[in-house]
Amino acid sequence: MVRNFGRKAALTAALMATTSLAQAAEVEVLHWWTSGGEAAALNVLKEDLAGQKIGWVDMPVAGGGGESAMTTLRARVTSGDAPTAVQMLGFDILDWAEEGALANLDAVAAEEGWDAVVPAALQAFAKHDGHWISAPVNVHSTNWVWANKALLDELDIAQPATWDDFVAALQTLKDAGKTPLAHGGQAWQDATMFDGVILSVGGVEFYTKAFIDLDADALGSDQMLEAFNRMATLRSFVDDNFSGRDWNLASAMVINGEAGFQIMGDWAKGEFINAGKVPGDDFLCFRVPGSDGAVSFNSDQFAMFSVKDEGAQGAQGEMARAIMSPAFQAAFNTVKGSVPARTDVPNDDFDACGKQGMADLAAAAASGKLVGSVAHGHANRAAVKNAIYDVVTAHFNGEYDAAAAVEELVNAVEAAQ
Ligand code: BGC
Questions:
Q1: How far apart are CA 366 and CA 360, in angstroms?
Q2: 206 band by pLDDT with thresholds 50, 70 and 90
Q3: What's residue 25's pLDDT?
């Protein structure tokens, strides 16, 4: 009897130990990859981790740019229940690192030699005080235009090379009764267009002075007035139902030929690919006219929140290792629309837009024309970013004319610092 009971207890204990180990070898991942293309890319990550016996607990929070995800994250951390791995952008990563909330990834980074292969522009956000605190999964950029090729061919519209060409192309689409510009009226989408417009007006020099240095003269300049005028021009080419529309539904309008163009980061390419479309044949990708040579980038990184449980720590390390493997970076980014976060991944598996994205990134980094995206948290901390969002969106919705927007921008940025 006693022996039997002992054996049963030992078995139960062994079972419990296995179960808790199995439970520990999992990551809870908070992210905002909820569109069709994003979900397809996320699956590449889930399957990669499943192959390594790392369990996945999904915590999706919809909303491009990650604002809602960051609000949810703050609430989870405040209630003492941080997710183990979190998709994060730019300055948000550094903010959490400063709060001492993130795990140190130095050991896996050293084993895998991250220092040598991750570009400096990404290390600026993946390291804090010299320590690795996140694993970059990709590099996106925001100054892209996506176009429906058949529609352009039908209306004899050539790929626009200058801003004036672009406006003329938009007008031709409008005259033909099409929606010229597919857009979703959400603050982060307005701001995403603004990234490209700023570059088209004054290149990286103006972009840097205004939005990285936050120079009041540049913020209040005639160039800024021109940028807001260009935003008003774009506003005149969106359809009546643009307000509140999700970005992927705007991409769908270009995919199905209802609209000619969308200005959006290269996550939009993920939607085209997911719909079975081929670059060059079905759709075109090109830089916002006037912004060629410049790249406004953002990099999705996974930051790991500090946990005590050793099993969970192990799973976090393995997830970071998996994310950074060259094979995974190719497999994931070909689906996501982004390009690899390491410089040594061959471009063979990438389509024409991906190859262009990789070449543009390398060239921009070499020529000093790589700038962090304002809209996607790589130019400023959240307070300044949100102040810029507010002005850009109020202007886009007709609350201010361009001159008032310039004035509001100067004041809002100053107040937010
Ligand atoms: C992220 C992308 C994402 C996009 C739209 C951006 O902030 O960097 O990965 O696809 O938002 O959700």
A1: 10
A2: very high
A3: 86
CA distance 218 to 111: 44
Identity of the amino acid at 286: F
| Non-local CB neighbours of 9 within 8 Å, separated by 6+ positions | none
- Nearest one of 167, 157, 144, 391 to 266, comparing CA atoms: 144
Which residue's alpha carbon is at the smallest distance from atom 6 of ligand 1?
A: 65
Supply 337's token pair.
Answer: 């629309």
The two structure tokens encoding residue 358: 């990789």
Residue with tokens 């050793």: 310
Model confidence at 64, pLDDT cuts 50, 70, 90, reads confident
* Entry field: residues in the chain: 417
pLDDT at 20 > cutoff 70: no
CB of 283 within 6 A of ligand 1: the answer is no
- The amino acid occupying position 79 is S
Give CA–CA dist 335/341, Å, rounded: 14
**Residue 157 neighbours by CB distance under 10 Å:** 20
Q: What is the DSSP string of 64-100?
A: GGGHHHHHHHHHHHHTT---SEEEEEHHHHHHHHHTT
Give the percent of the chain with pLDDT over 90: 94
Chain mean pLDDT for the chain: 94
CA of 267 to the centre of ligand 1 (A): 6
Report the 10 Å Cβ neighbour count for 55.
Answer: 15
Nearest CA to ligand 1 atom 4: 64
